[in-house]
Amino acid sequence: MIKKALLTTLVLLVFYSIATQFINKNFVANNMNERNFIKADQVNYLNLEGKKIIVGSSIAHRLALEGRQDFHNLSLEGKSALTSMEILIEQGIKPKMLLIETNVFLPIDHDLVDYSTNIIFSNLRQNVPILRVEQKPSRYMMPIMMNQGKLGKVYVGLNEMVKTVFPASKQVSQTQQVKNTVMPKVNLPDLKRQLAYFEKQGTQIVFFDMPAGCNEQHTYLAKLMRENFPHIPFLPTANCADFPTSDATHLTQESAQKYTHFWLKEVEKIEK
Amino acid sequence: MLFNSPQFFLLLFVTLFLYYLPALRKLQIYTLIGAGFVFYGSHKPILVLLLLTSIALNIITSYQIATQKNRATQRLYATVGVVLNLALLAFFKYAGMLSLTFLPKESPVVNFLTSIPLPIGISFFTFQGISLVVDTFKSQDNSLFRNIKPTSHTVETTLFIAFFPHAIAGPIVKAHDFYPQIKTKFFREIPFEPAFKALVIGFFLKTVLADNLKDETFWISFPQFQGLSSLNLIFLLIGYSSQIFADFAGYSLIAIGVARLFGYELTQNFNFPYISRSFAEFWQRWHISLSSFLREYLYIPLGGNRKGKFRTYLNLMIVMGLGGLWHGAAWSYLVWGMFHGVALAIERLLDDALKVKIRHWSLQMLQICFVYTAVTLAWLLFKLPEFSQVIAYFIAIAHNAHKAVDYQKINVVVFYSLFVLFYHLYYLFISKYPQSKVRQIEPYLYGVCLFLIITNSGSTGEFIYFQF
Fold first, then answer.
1. Domain that holds residue A252
2. pLDDT for B196-228, tens place per residue?
């Protein structure tokens, strides 16, 4: 029984390795965690030396940089620039320019850093692509499930049922309407250590804050960075009211494109 | 150290090698004890001292019970043993919660008590200690132990509590089930096939289902869930129901599989709970080792169902309430336990009053759906730390029906929950047709599971029950 099971696994692994060569790889990740793991893993096999790398959170993840080969967006959703920079440091990558989003400074996610930098497993993933998150079989299954149509119709039907059950629907107060009274703490020693590393490598460092719902916390953090690192240039802050968000934090697709246009112009101005 | 971490596999292989090495055969128990301390200490080395304290108090009290001739003295030692075990649990787990409830928040006592970290697995090894003390007291002829010499009793009790497959999150092993298994083991006696099956299904449930679902059910957190549509919120609940089952049943199966590799058989902890037609049946199928512990060491000593109907209902509520609180130091766990207690009491009341047996399959399916829905709704008390947030979740379901639906989130939940559904349906089918030819494809199904473990595991996440 064990032999049969192991043989089946082996056959499936070989078949899947071959099949993935011919499957369209442009399927989106299932969720933000998968996107983070894919990004953290790509640092191992994409050549990022000499590129302009953006580090930050889900807010900077929205930057619309498709087609710009000179940029690489390593912004991690639900994380912050601290985790992205730690991955770059552990991998020994020297970017030409490091653009640091200052809206959020969550602590370093060491699990994600370990995932990206563990020598044995990252090498294994580099040489056996089917072990990468971006090649999980479920990534191929989900769009197939959705595009079959029938399941989509079932979901829509269910949603209509829910609307019938709860007809007097009104939105409850959401996160964005909560006034931020407590200002976030930043692990400044970690940030100083990371910035010192990149400065030593000769990387040009630039701060920027994204327009993200005119949040007081973001303004506070931008001020904190300016005070603590006065020698590091800061891109001009855009008027947040000009860039609508989908949830008071993240830019809509249109806003993101509009802001990216503004942002790229400012980066060009500051580039050495 | 997680079961799905490289460090664990290293520990497992080194321990297995040393354990079955003929030259070290006489030291088998010591090898397992050593591995147990490495495993436990890998989380926070200092907490090994707490584990040692628990072991020491149980060795002393159980030894005294076993060697004293006077029944009253035995009873005294048994009481001391149980009280000390409970005191240890109360101090490390509940002192913070109680102080926050009854003392002013700024008080230095509260600051001190809430700063005590919760030692991993304390609820599990404390209950095992209680089981040892009570079982020793019950077995008046000392039939529980091979011999009751101080050295062997110390070694065997240390193994009983620090046996690493179950040390952190169960199954809760009772002394009378474990001690008779302590003897020299041989490599040729390893039940490879049952161990392989338990390990493959265990890892599949944990790494493929629970770890992938966790990335979606992450949205069941305040205030993030408020931005989601009603349909998303409903499916997230289904997803969490699948996740918590896959996570804990997966852990238990891995523990059982690993224990089998060392020649030990642990109690079955899950028996397809989501096909239960009643709450009573659910508790015979979910976390079996805990429910049987509560029945044996709490419900029956309280009088069980022998002291009239009112006492039966009251006992059910007490047992389930305390069982709920055992899971975590928060009042929402008590509410969760009481919810199940009330459900069990009402169910028993209806059973006694109506005495109707439902035989038609469609009505039976309806019963399964009802129990599943109620159990799933109650899991929200597990996921959200505050009761007010649970209420907010239900309000959001009622108010967000017209928000845009994120179908991708639903898709992920449906995709992984279908495996849980299939797992239960397959069991139902096999139970009804045990000789079916379908069984011939089982090896290939295990092969597919192994393939998915390798290629489709989610990001490593702690086991949900580690927090208890």
1. 28-126+181-270
2. 999 999 999 999 999 999 989 988 988 778 888
ipTM: 0.79
Selection from B88-97, B130-139, B291-300, B367-376 with the highest mean pLDDT: B367-376
Residue B128's pLDDT band (cuts 50, 70, 90): confident
Check whether residue B228 and residue B365 sit in a common domain.
yes
pLDDT in tens, A241-261: 888 887 778 888 888 899 999
B177 & B225 share domain: no
User: If you measure CA to CA, which chain A residue comes closest to B199?
Assistant: A2
Q: How many distinct structural domains can be found in chain A?
A: 1
* A9/B444 touch (CB, cutoff 8 Å), yes or no: no
pLDDT of residue A146: 65
DSSP H or E segment with residue A165:
helix A150-165
Interface test with B, best of A31, A119, A131 (most B CBs within 10 A): A31
Q: Are residues B42 and B171 part of one domain?
A: yes
Burial of A62 (0-12, 13-18, 19+ CB in 10 A): buried
For residue B342, being part of any structural domain is answered with no
| Cβ-Cβ contacts under 8 Å, B448 against chain A | 8-9, 12
Structural domain contains residue B211: yes
Q: Find the mean pLDDT for residues A145-161.
A: 73
**B147, B220: one domain:** no
User: Hey, are the CB atoms on A142 and B411 less than 8 Å from each other?
Assistant: yes
Which pLDDT band, with edges at 50, 70 and 90, does A134 fall under?
Answer: confident
Where among B188, B221, B243 does a domain terminate? B188
Residues of chain B in contact with residue A162, where contact means CB-CB under 8 angstroms, are: 230-231, 234, 401
Please judge whether A12 and B443 are an interchain contact, meaning their C-beta atoms are less than 8 angstroms apart.
no
User: Cβ contacts (< 8 Å) between A138 and chain B: which residues?
Assistant: 212, 412, 415, 456
- Asked which of B166, B188, B210 is the last residue of a domain, the reply is B188
**Averaged pLDDT, B435-462:** 87
Report the domain count for chain B.
2
Cβ A142–B412 below 8 Å, yes or no? yes
Q: What is the domain range of residue B456?
A: 192-277+358-467
Q: Is residue B162 part of a domain?
A: yes
Q: Which of B153, B287, B327, B340 is catalytic?
A: B327
H, E, C per residue of A96-161:
CEEEEECCCCCCCCHHHHHHHHCHHHHHHHHHCHHHCHHHCHHHHHHHHHHHCCHHHHHHHHHHHH
Q: Are B156 and B145 in contact (CB under 8 A)?
A: yes
**DSSP annotation of B299:** I
Question: Looking at residues A194-202, what average pLDDT do you find?
Answer: 91
Q: Is position B170 within any domain?
A: yes
Active site residue B43: no
| Minimal Cβ distance to B399: which of A6, A138, A171 | A171
Contact B243, B214 (CB under 8 A): yes
**From the CA of A268, how many Å to the nearest CA of chain B?**
36
Write down the residue that tokens 């092993």 correspond to. B173
One domain for residues B183 and B197: no
* HSE (side-chain half, CA atoms, 13 Å) at A179: 1
